Amino acid sequence: MKRKIIIFSKEYPPEVGGAGVIAKTIYDGLSKVGDIKVSLVRLHNILDKCLFPLFFMNFLRADYIILNDLFSKKFWIKFLKLSLSRKCIIYLHGSEPEYLVNDIRYRKDFLNLCLYSKIVISVSDYMKIKFIESIPDDFEGKDKIISKIVIIKNGIDTGIFYNDINLKRCSNKLLITTTSRIIKEKGYIRMADIIKIYISKYSEEVEWSIVGDGKDIDLIKNYCKEIDIYKFTTFHGVLSHKLLFKLYNRSHAFLLLSELKESLGLVYMEASSCGAFSLGYNRYGVKEAIVNNISGKLINNESNDEIAFILNDIYCENKISNIEPDFFSKDNMLIKLNNYMRLHE
Fold first, then answer.
1. Who contacts 67 (Cβ-Cβ below 8 Å, separation ≥6)?
2. What is the spatial distance between Cα 120 and Cα 71, in angstroms, rounded to a whole number?
3. Quick check: pTM over 0.90?
């Protein structure tokens, strides 16, 4: 008999967001497993919400219910409380401490949901520590929740993102790529200043390719104009995986100096799997997404001038990511997830 798995996630491609990417990865991967029947519940529009009683019948028949994004967890604890909690697998992507544990409206119900769930999955070592530290010491079930937490690091599709020897790096200029939601907290002001220094000290033969969209896109465009680097910058908007793969394979460096407490960082993995040398801060989950001096370089206290020098060195020395092709593969994640589900049948 096939095991029935439901992924409950409002966030899902083409909507932008790491939780949605992982939901699709799990859906596509588990759909190929012979003894598993997997389905997706989103509730992303009014019609879906009207059909929720039908979805609930599916929840009753399911063997496992993966609560993936913040919406699914908030919806569950608001309307279903602890119903079917023993079927639930709770995914921790990053902001659960801020929006669930630290919010008095959700804290007790969410922690009880974790307490009675099958397992709680953290996407990184950092995320596990962050979540544990957010649980109040006087919560009676804290130790039991901790015992349920397993780390399954998110992976990428290395069949899509790989170093294609037939695609050559850009030869006549340094090509730097940044992919993220375009909000200033992702470090865009500092990155723009670094590009400005590179142009001033090393060469005007440079292009900064920015992929994504977000509320601060006009602010970032205006700042690039203000410091006179706009003509060296290309805003691509949201790209398909096929086009992103080609861009990463042409890029020398992937630069993302996010000021947020990132839980992991799939974009670093995708870029470096295509050969681009990734630069990100040596903190939080980013340090688990970059293998220092192999897939990229972890940035500590380097100044903007020093980072500009690193970019020049990447270009002049033709440094590329030398990460093993399957190191960040989603297959490793899916195997672990399937194994843990079997252990908790």
1. 8, 73, 76, 88, 89, 90, 91, 113
2. 17
3. no
